[in-house]
Structure formats: C-alpha cells, structure tokens
Amino acid sequence: MTISAPSETGSAFLGTASGDFSPALMMEVELTEPLPAIHGDPQHRRAWILCRLGTEPVGTCIVPLSSDRLTPDQFGEQLWPNVQEAVNLRFMQAGLPVPSRLPGSGIEIEPSSWPYLLRRTEILSGAPFISVVVCTRDRAERLGNCLSYLDGQEYPRFEIVVVDNAPSSDATRSVIDSRSDAGEDGRPAVPCRYVREQRAGLSWARNAGAAAATGDVIAFVDDDERPDRYWLAEIARGFGRSADVGCVSGMILPARLDTPFQEMFEVAGGHSKGRGFTADIFSKDGSQSPLYPNPPFGAGGNMAFHREPLNRIRGFDVAMGAGTPTRGGEDSLALTLTLLCGYKIAYEPSAFVYHEHYQDLEGLGRQLHGYGIGLMSFYTALLRHRPTVLLELLHLLPAAINYLKKPKASSAALSWRLPDDLRRRYRKALLSGVFAYPRSVRVQSKLKLPEQKK
Length: 454
Known about the structure:
454 residues, alpha/beta, Spore Coat Polysaccharide Biosynthesis Protein SpsA, Chain A, 2 domains, three-stranded mixed beta sheet, globular
C-alpha cells in the first residue's frame, strides 16, 4: 500500500488522471488520538484523508485501500512518511523534540501548552461578535444542513442571518421558523434571523445580509457548505494576525468525491486554487499582485470582512455574481478592492469548510461556464471601479500571456486540466464575459423592490 503525500494545494488525488476512478471514502484523522484500523470495501478502493494535529488541519492525502485490514500501528507506519514534515515543523516551532514515528496510539502533545491551542484559547477569551450571513434560494434542505453545522460551532458569540433571495415558496422561511429554542446539546440555539431580498442576484442578497447584520465582523458561507466546528474561531484567529486585516479567507475542501466530475473539479484547482495549508497575509504592495493572476486570496463561499472595509468598497457589486448575467466574480472583485483600499487579507487555512461539488458533467459544465464569464467580468468591473489600474494591467499583460501558456493551479488552469469539450466551453465563456458585465449593469439598474414598482 502506498500513500500520496499531504498536498500543499489541499488536494491529492488518484483516479482521474489514470481513468480508473473509484469513489473515495472521506475521512478526518486526528494525529494526536488513537488511529483507526482501516480497510477497503467494495464501494471504496481509496480514502481521502484530512490530517489534523491538535485540531489544526496540516494536509490531505490519498490512501489506496485493499481488502487487507491495516491495524492502527500499520496505518501509522504508512501515514508517517507523508505527515512527518508538517508535524515536525510544528514541534520545532513549539520548541519541542520532534517525534520519530506515528504510533497507532497517536502522537502525544500537551494540550495545555500546545501553541496552536493556546492561541485559540486566547482568541476565544476576547472573541469578537460575528454575524454569519447565509444566502440561499429555494434550497431549504441544504440550508437546514448548513445551519446544523453552524449551530455546532465552538464559538461563544455569533448570530446567523439567512437571506432568502427571490424565493418561489416559503420553504426557507419555514426552516427558520421551525428552529428550536434549544440546540441538540442543551445549549441555547444560535440566534437566527430571516431576511427576504426579492431582487435576484447573490450580491443583492449578500448586501442585504450585511445590512441586517449586527456584528462588526461579517462572515459569508454558502448554503451547500459544512463549516468545520472551529470555523469561526479560526476566522477570529485571522483577524487577530494584524490590526489592518480587513478580510479573512479560508480553505474550501470537497465534501464528497463520489463521481469523476467532482474529482475533475478538484484536480483542476477546485475552490482552494492551490492555496495549501500555510497561513499567509496579502497586501496591496505584497509579492502577489492584487490584479493578476485572478487573485488567489479567497472564494466567496468562505470569507469574512470587517464592516469598515466592506462599507468602503460599497459592498458587493450587484451586477456581479450568481443570478446575474456575469454568473460570478463578485467575490474576487470585493477581495481585490479591499486590497486596493489598503487593507490586508489573511488567508487562514484552518478556517475551512466542506463543499458539495456538482456530481455530473452537466453541473460541472455550467459551473465552469460561469467561472469563465465571471473571470472576464471581474476585470471589466475592476476597470469600472478603478480605471487607474489600466496601466498596471497593461504592464502585466506579458506575464498573463506566459501564464496562460504554462498555467498554475488557478482559474486559468481550469482550461488546461479538463476534457476538450469543457475546455472549449470555458474559453468561450471567457470571451463572452467582457460583454456580460455592462449588460448586467443595465439590467440591475432597472430592478426595484416590489413595493417600489408601480
């Protein structure tokens, strides 16, 4: 049995490239606790594993499974060469002797003195109040699942604002009204408020949620995601890295790899776009240009803003995003404008969520089509908001051409790691994106709330 190394891109995959796809058993392994015995079954010939050390996610790996059962000690022996580097780095940072092996009983740490856990305790002692905004449209079942994970957050002070965007029924309202006053563990239920935004479009919904939020920190998560139980605590960790951090983004991992199309999306970069498990801080004048490649600073399904920078950029551009002709790009625009306004973005991989990827070719095709339109709409919108960046974009043009010839794991790389028909569809969408934004601006300018219509 072999194990692929924990991936700094947040993804390590087998099957798609070889054409021998099999569904993956999705697992989390806490390296400081007793390891499980592991073996294959008729449905799963491999396992996708998120490795955690003292609750901190440190990497992912793929384990091919066979019918032979691995004992916990054998599993540790197989896993250790691939997690050793990440584990030893954290022990060295803690000033402790590095372990020499991963026993089946797990690696011993002292939680009361482990730096990562100490910092979380410090953060939670002064936890800022956070408003979590969940925008949804006619997906009551998925919303209910997302809310159950939010209710399980290990965080003391937050609220949930659900924005029902141009709904066709009262199903979403019913989900909110049916919530119990007490959670399953006996704790009081998290306060959850319902907001209806009749104008269709994700940016309309996000702006409505931000306006209704009472917290100074506003976190956004999609209704088809499962936030990790420490998601909000790790968002707070990101804001605590520097006083001028205006936004925190986190990792988005696959919830399932049941079909080749879900894996195909991950191999092409997924939502994490190669950002990996190393925390980082981006700034306007940093080594990574805010303008190109399409900013790797985060994605809309997992980002949080201080209210001040969100107000300064005037919220999300309502001509951008799902539900509009641009199909996306509103998150990249908001993140880029935040940097251009002088704020920093903290990338906090430990603030992660799981996302339900499209399972079939049709869904993946629609998604990539939307990404292509959204990418070029982003640049068109950026020039409208910041005309002065034109010269810098022209200066970056040679690098952009070279990048398209030899892309890395980003949106541009999508067209190079997909079947021909999807690649052509993506590139065609890139061309149409230039015209989608001005068309969307005209459409959104004519929208009015129902009570404003004559």
